[in-house]
Amino acid sequence: MFPKTHLTIAAGATVLVAATVLMSPSSNVEAKRMSYALDLEQGSVSAPAKGPASADEQNSGEVKTDTASSSAPTSGEKGQTEATVAAAPSEPALDWQAFEIKSGDTLSSLFKAAGFNDGIMLSVIHGEGDADKLQRLYAGETIRFASDDQGKLAAVELQRNRLKSLKVSRTDDGFKGQILTREPEARPMFASGVIDDSLYASARAAGLNDKLTMELTDIFGWDVDFVYDVRKGDRFEVVYQDLYLDGKKLGTGKILSARFINRGDERLALLYTDDAGNSDYFTPDGKSMRKAILRTPIDARVSSPFNLQRRHPVLGVVRPHEGTDYAAAPGTPIKAAGSGRVISAGRKGGYGRAVVLQHGDGITTLYAHMSRIARGMKAGSRVKQGQTIGYVGSSGLATGPHLHYEYRVNGRPVNSRTVKLPDAKPVPSSEMAQFRKVADQRLAQFNVFEGREQQLAMAEEE
């Protein structure tokens, strides 16, 4: 027989243990718990994936608790603990200051305006990653400084534009910079028009901006001279991208597909990006829209055409004009008509300062009367199509600033404005299957837009 006091204590302990077991969550309940991370800066709540239980826990089914939680808290302690957990943020709140960068501002002056000295600034720009890029500032950008609750610098954010920013954050080891890029949402759009006066006027009336119109002329400019060949009644149809960010229009992207009908001759171009990430326009059967040689190496008007019976304006005698002259302002860049090798670069008699390039298939091009020749142009050096090789001038026998451009095949002068230009490389056979898939998608999209346009036109006529 135990004393009555002992029995009373034992009964009380039994009740306490039973209550503790009933109040403790089972292993099944514990496995369904999920903690949420609250991002105060972004204003978002995220639920991280729950990690699996350890092997010992899975095998034993026991719920491990620490010593402090082994005894049941009082009602007052429990309420206080819950209130503390609910009030504790996952990240400390930061105080942000923003400044719009103006002409004359320096990184040092901006740091001082935010309340930080040059020592802090040097610690930031000497940080890891892209931190040093913070030194390149441009007027119109926005820079923000974040301070923690102790007034220490926690982060610096430089907003380059709506898509790109640089953020330098404090870490345990100092500061670390990272470039952040946002991708806009691309929405396909369609525009079409009939040329009445000029392509630019008709394109604008159809809703195309100048950027897209220039891109359209670049795509078809290899076959169509948009200064001399375009006629009233020519038509164009374009599928292009509108870019949106946060639901607001940001601008326009690339042309995805386009059709141009010039004097009844139809041309269709489709955008394709190869395995190396290079994008270009091709016909539906994989031929490049580009040519190996540019029709014109400069954006300017023709001042004197190719004419083998022309009277020379300086010498006053009949002398064949074996090239085409383009009048342009002094200093206008001159582009290499095609990729190739420099044969000569320097003074060349009446041509003045001139560059001669060797291309494939016996083709050579000459660029004369330059004010100066671009750096790196010397015999034997390689050039790429579109690369600047010199600048318009009036050196040599010239009455004014212009480019004299010659196109020769096996040494024989040919009219560069009418010669059939060699094609650029088509889609390689190794990528033809992939290209056909993309081309089918582009054509299907084009046909859907075109069908809708026709339905709208029919509805308006009714």
Q: Can you tell me about this structure?
A:
- One of its GO terms (cellular component) is cell envelope.
- Keywords: Hydrolase, Metal-binding, Metalloprotease, Protease, Signal, Zinc.
- It is found in: Cell envelope.
- This is Zinc metallopeptidase.
- By secondary structure, the chain is of the alpha+beta class.
- The chain has 3 domains: 87 residues, Nuclear Transport Factor 2, Chain: A, CATH 3.10.450.350; 147 residues, Nuclear Transport Factor 2, Chain: A (Roll), CATH 3.10.450.350; 114 residues, Glucose Permease (Domain IIA), CATH 2.70.70.10.
- 23% of the residues lie in helices and 32% in strands.
- Strands 14, 15, 16, 17, 18, 19, 20, 21, 22 and 23 form a 10-stranded antiparallel β-sheet that branches. The chain has a 6-stranded mixed β-sheet with strand order 3-5-6-7-8-4, covered by helices on one side. A 5-stranded antiparallel β-sheet has the order 9-10-11-12-13, sandwiched between helices.
- The radius of gyration is 36 Å and the shape is globular.
- About 18% of the residues have low confidence.
